[in-house]
TrEMBL record:
NCBIfam families: transpos_IS200 (NF033573). GO terms for biological process: DNA transposition. InterPro entries: Transposase_17, Transposase_17_sf. Pfam families: Y1_Tnp. Coiled coil: none annotated. Transmembrane segments: none annotated. SUPFAM superfamilies: Transposase IS200-like. It comes from the Bacteria. Residues 9-71 form the Transposase IS200-like domain. GO terms for molecular function: DNA binding; transposase activity. This is Transposase IS200-like domain-containing protein.
Amino acid sequence: MKLDSNNHSVFSLNDHLALVIKYRRKVINTAVSEKAKQMFMDIGEKYNITLLEWSHDQDHVHALFKAHPKNRTF
């Protein structure tokens, strides 16, 4: 397992995010999923977030990503 580090710590933070459409409406297709994935990656570049996995179904998407501890606000 590869660990990340900064000046004061060593870490490996992986987060799983599930984004669900309101009322579970079936509106996600491949084109919508790819657009959302690209937007996630574009925003993630500014916050040092690396997308590891992305998958979708008709009513939700799953993202597994690696983040830096200073970017965690929750």
